[in-house]
Amino acid sequence: xxxxxxxxxxxxxxxxxxxxxxxxxxxxxxxxxxxxxxxxxxxxxxxxxxxxxxxxxxxxxxxxxxxxxxxxxxxxxxxxxxxxxxxxxxxxxxxxxxxxxxxxxxxxxxxxxxxxxxxxxxxxxxxxxxxxxxxxxxxxxxxxxxxxxxxxxxxxxxxxxxxxxxxxxxxxxxxxxxxxxxxxxxxxxxxxxxxxxxxxxxxxxxxxxxxxxxxxxxxxxx
Amino acid sequence: xxxxxxxxxxxxxxxxxxxxxxxxxxxxxxxxxxxxxxxxxxxxxxxxxxxxxxxxxxxxxxxxxxxxxxxxxxxxxxxxxxxxxxxxxxxxxxxxxxxxxxxxxxxxxxxxxxxxxxxx
Lengths: 222, 120
Hints:
The complex is a heterodimer.
Chain A: E1 2-6, H1 10-21, E2 25-30, H2 33-41, E3 49-52, H3 58-62, E4 71-74, H4 79-93, E5 97-102, E6 119-122, H5 123-135, E7 140-146, E8 151-157, E9 178-185, E10 188-190, E11 203-209, H6 213-221
Parallel strand pairs in A: 1-2, 1-4, 2-3, 4-5, 5-6
Antiparallel strand pairs in A: 7-8, 8-11, 9-10, 9-11
Chain B: H1 2-10, H2 13-26, E1 40-56, E2 59-67, E3 72-78, E4 91-101, E5 104-108, E6 111-114
Parallel strand pairs in B: 3-5
Antiparallel strand pairs in B: 1-2, 1-4, 2-3, 4-5, 4-6
């Protein structure tokens, strides 16, 4: 897959490295020339192409070959820039998938299709979810909102008292619009099947629509 | 003469309309909508076949359907509920980046030009 990342800071560099490791064709667009020279000189991100350009300018963005990119990730530290890059990627280059990083959670409402963003990733919200996860065994923790908030990926850690403990997934009375996508047990991922029996301490990852969230909590956690 | 009459009688109004549109826009030197590539810069012409205001993630967007007889394209103007001059039946030229999404050819916020009615 061809990926263009706008913003060569800590976040952009990290994503670039892990995507390149996974075998993708990665280009980082960074406006700060000295940053790019440092990255090139120290071979900080092997296999990643660095381009000095202002991603907020169509002509400069074109130099990163965005017209052939499958994904553009706008991950600068500036929400305005991320929105501009997202809109340009969608409008001027018809990029199939645009990912936008939300720095200030107050701006998250703008990171939508109206600005060309297909997926918004909000670090503060993810952090909140992870902190919640750490402190909340026995509640449903939202990890990721999907489809503009109509569906969510959530996780619940089962306690001894959870009604789902000892049940197999086929007989778990979950609503139709909710499905178990993974069970994390003792640091391992158990691929859920109908005969998978849930244990206390299991972390159950579910994909669910928002309207049945209450039912899901009742079934899994009581 | 009679055979031509019979041929035109045997066809549906949709077919006749599509043919009339094709004849009108074919001479313009622009690409037929049916042949527009995915993710390519295009210059297309067509007649406004329909207008629709649809919410895109909560904000309104005007979707204008252009028909040139070979196919249809949807021109999206985000944040607008109407664009002056873009009325049903109006011939329009749109210049922008096209992509195929959900079986439709979509141009997002393209440059556009209203054409004088009667001209190709």
